[in-house]
Amino acid sequence: MLWRTRLLLAVVCGVAVASVYAGQPVLAPMGRDLGVSVGSVGWFVAAGQLGYLAGLALLVPLGDMLDRRRLIAGHLALVAVGMAITAAAPGAFAAFAGLAVAGVFAVVVQTAVAYTASVSPSAERGRNLGIVTSGVVIGILGARVVAGVLADVWGWRSIYVVLAALAGLLALLTLALLPADVRPDAARYGQVLRSFGGLFAQPVFLSRGLIAFFLFASFGTLWSGMALPLAGAPWHLSEAQIGLFGVAGLAGALGAARSGRWGDAGYARRVTGAALVLLIVSWVAIGQLSWSLPLLVVGVVVLDFAVQAVHVSNQHALTTAYADRTSSTVGGYMVFYSLGSAAGAAATTALFGAFGWTGPTVLGAALALGALVTWAFGGRAAEVTRENVEARKVLT
User: CA-CA distances (angstroms) from residue 194 to 100, 293, 302, 396?
Assistant: First the structure.
């Protein structure tokens, strides 16, 4: 795969996923402007995640039937529409609707990942996935930094104006620069959906999917709730200052970029287990937010390193096991991601309102433990071996 193709796909992933997560550092001003209570502002993130879930089930499998280049361009254009609706929203309902629309078509991320896996030689698949999915991390965390600055200067609506423009531009670039990806013997949509559903009965898929659910619920617990205590006593940080914590998360996540190469070398399962232990440890430091910002930074770096390492290892394992239907596999896997992220986003703000930062801290650590237990009891079922590869035949 050419470097410019990897770069373009990474940017596509970053902008698309930012459309779902960019509101995290500005939940408080969004809530005040649109009349949403503190205990319910997490639904600004959850709305996009629930839309994302619908897109995973209904849209991502299309990548096993149609030209993925055209799908990527079309979905980016509709992400731009959702962002424009959110930017112009006169009230909460319109904002929720715009975020849900953007979330549905933000599944372009999974189409881009599937495209990467399908065109990569097997010896380079993990490396290429690591590079392209780094765009996801940059979108989730880097958007926090940019969003905080834009919100301080022009207000929270400017974030969505910028994202709408970027998504529209990328739609055009995708058509111009990516090679066509025509499916020579495409299955019917009904067949693809049935095989999509059949994945959820496969041990390899189910084990990695449950790990992803707990992993991203823990991730969402931090990033959807952290802005609330940082904006209050004793810190009273501005949106721009809160957004800067995304730099720490970005550093940690990009530090895990080599996890794809570890997967190519056959260490995907070991990497997953070690990273999940680090995820639990990270919450010990994150729990000190009420009195120590340096410890919070350490915790954020470790958490995002662990999350990215597990995420890349999961996708490498699954696209190797089910290489003949990468779009459906990645889309099905991301159902767990979406459910976990939505659950974490919705729960953390409610727990913070009831128990302060202790509530989200306990939740995040418990979810990380759930991922580790799933990995341990999944045993070698989640490891890609020759037997795992043969298991995909039941879907044909």
Answer: 25, 49, 39, 10
CA-based nearest residue to 318, from 93, 34, 125, 75: 125
Mean pLDDT of 172-183: 82
Tell me what pLDDT residue 184 has: 61
Calpha distance 87→84 (Å, rounded) = 5
Q: Where are the alpha helices (DSSP H) in 59-182?
A: 68-87, 92-105, 108-119, 125-137, 143-154, 157-177
Q: Higher model confidence: residue 4 or residue 14?
A: 14
Contact between 252 and 301 under an 8 Å Cβ cutoff? The reply is yes
pLDDT, one tens digit per residue, over 50-64 is 888 888 888 888 887
Find all residues with CB under 8 Å of 289, minimum gap 6, and list them.
226, 229, 230, 295, 296, 357, 361
User: Which token pair is 142?
Assistant: 């880097």
- The pLDDT assigned to 385 comes to 43
| Exposure b/e, 243-259, CB count within 10 A at least 16 = b | bbbbbbbbebbbebbeb
Find which of 136-145, 219-228, 352-361 is predicted with most confidence, using mean pLDDT. 352-361
Average pLDDT for 76-89: 94
Closest among 308, 389, 375 to 17, alpha carbons compared: 308
Q: What pTM value is reported for the model?
A: 0.75
Place of tokens 């958007």: 143
CB contact set of 266 (below 8 Å; sequence gap of 6+): none
CA neighbor of 3 nearest in space, from 131, 167, 142? 131
Question: Residue 187: which region, alpha, beta or left (left: phi > 0; alpha: psi -120 to 50)?
Answer: beta
CA dihedral 60, 62, 63, 65 (to 10 degrees): 160
Among 28-42, 248-262, 263-277, the range scoring the smallest mean pLDDT is 248-262
d(CA 39, CA 214): 22
Could you give the 3-state DSSP secondary structure of residue 383? coil
